[in-house]
Amino acid sequence: MCQACGCGDTNIVPVSLNERILAANDRAARHNREHFRDRHVSAINLMGSPGAGKTAVLEATARMLGPGARVGVLAGDLATDNDAQRIRAAGMVAESITTGTACHLDADMIHKGLHRMPEWRTFDYLFIENVGNLVCPAVYDLGQDVNVVALSVTEGEDKPLKYPTMFQKADLVLLTKIDLLPHLPDVRIETIRENLSIVMPAPRMFSVSARTGEGIDRWVHWLEGLRVPRASEHVIVGAL
Amino acid sequence: MHEYSIVQSLFDQIRDTARARGAVAVHRVTIQIGEIAGVEVELLRTAYELFRERTICEHAPLEVEAVAVRWTCPDGHGDVTRGHALVCAVCARPARLAAGDEIVLKQLELEVP
To answer: What is the dihedral of CA A184, A189, A193, A198, to 10 degrees?
Structure first.
């Protein structure tokens, strides 16, 4: 009630908040990140358009890493389990996160996905294959260590300029399907690189072909640079 | 179409704030959306209009403040011009995003009995 004269009017009070609208997702992402740090799991959020070659890159990565690496994948998919099946066939542990009509994964979906894949605690790498989409996934922190965007040579040189939010958030861009370049006389890798530098402050791009294996070694080497060895992988000195 | 899920989060946030302060209605909602936040403002408005019926926000217009993107040198050499490589013209260090990715609930006008 109005305190000044007791007239019965209600008070309208301005309240300054300045809070991120996705604060709840940010909290869930922090929680995931703490889990990954505790278990020394490197989490990679792999994004890109539908058909950019995300699953194929993961299959090629499994081949290059070999059976010694402990790798798992949470695969976001609108309606099917196809990606997870392909990844399992390539020798990785995989769980699907079926999003229905949702166009992105959020931190809570990752948390629930981890519950269905308890082996994640033993992984060296957890790949999160996001829903094929160059807009929405960039908005949601999942608790990953790095964002990687797969961009295929058939998508056009100006993709980075059209989707600046996605590429601005990328730590690495994988230019995929480079085995197709001989059929694409108008596509220049240098132009893609220049366009990336306009939207990405520290542009880093590797050219790869999942089909021929070209460039996959460089990508895997980059992944190895993310690894934080587990305590048990050091020589343990002193106390138990 | 993540604008719908953003509006859902916005309503959760408003509801919690209103409850904590004993408000009976919201009279205005002011949010900030950055130019490269990845949010389509018109879609967000549509989603807001759809959701607000029969909620505490039924009579609250949505004000959206656009925030322009701004890149700066991390070493204090000032703004980095857009449309070129995002590195400082003085020291060549990669630019830092200073503004333009906001998805922020800035202010509410609450009716408190």
So the answer is: -30
